[in-house]
Amino acid sequence: MPIVSVEKLTRTYGTGETAVRALDGVSLSVNAGEFVAIMGPSGCGKSTLLHLVGGLDKPDSGVVKIVDTDLSTLSDGDLTRLRRREIGFVFQFFNLIPVLSAIENAALPLVLDGKGRKETDAKAAEWLEKVGLGGRMNNRPDELSGGQQQRVAIARALAADPKLVLADEPTGNLDSKSADEVSELLRQVASEWGRSVVMVTHDPRIAAFAHRLVVMSDGRIVSDKETPGDGQAATETARLLIETATATAAEATPPPALAPE
Length: 261
What we know:
By secondary structure, the chain is of the alpha/beta class. It has helices at 46-53, 76-86, 102-106, 108-112, 117-130, 146-158, 176-191, 204-207, 232-252, and strands spanning 4-13, 20-30, 35-39, 61-66, 69-70, 87-90, 164-168, 196-200, 212-217, 220-226. β1 (4-13) and β2 form a beta hairpin.
C-alpha cells in the first residue's frame, strides 16, 4: 500500500483573467522507503503539490491519501493530529526556535502531542544521535552551522516516527558540502529507516540523491523515472531527464491564439 497516493489533483489560485492553474490533474504514488525528488521551473506547481500532500492546503478536486486516509474526510483537529504523527516537515530555512536547544527543538512534535518529558527527551536524543549530533544536543541554533541546524530539523521531523517526510528545498540555504551531507542523510532516512521522503528541489545534483525524479511543467507531471543513484553520472542523468521532459512538455503545449487584427 502506498504511503502517499494522489489522484487527479487540481488547484487554481485566483479567479477570472488572473486565475493561475497551479495543478492540472496530477496523480502520484510514493511507497514506503522511497525517496522522490520533484523538480521543474518556477511556477510549475511542485510546491503546491507538496503543500497538498502535507495537508497544508486543499485541492479544488482530486484525492490525497496518506497511509490510506483520505485527507478530505478529516476534521481540522484530525488533520492536525495526522500531520503531527504521520508527516515530518523539513524546510529551507530550518524553522528552529532560537531560544531552545537542539534536543528541545527536536522534541517539539512530541511535546505538542502531549508526550511526557522523559519520552520526548529520549526520542529526540535518539534521533539526534542518528543524524550525527549526539555531541551537540544542548547547543542552541546560533551555536550550530547551517548544515547542523538542518540535521536538527530532520531529527525533529523524525521524532514522532512519521511514515512520511516532506522536504521543501532542504538544501537551498546550505553550502555545497553541507547540501550533499543533508541529501545523503535524506536518502538514508528512506533507504535505511524506511520512511517515504518527498523533496522539492531546483538542483539536479541534489535530485540525483533520490530514487525517483519527478519533473513537472505547467501544473502537470511530464516525467517520472528512477535515478541511478548519487554521483556525477546520476547528476547528468537527472539534468537530461529534466531538460528532455520540459522540452517535450513545451512542444506538446499549443501556442496561444493570436488576437485578430
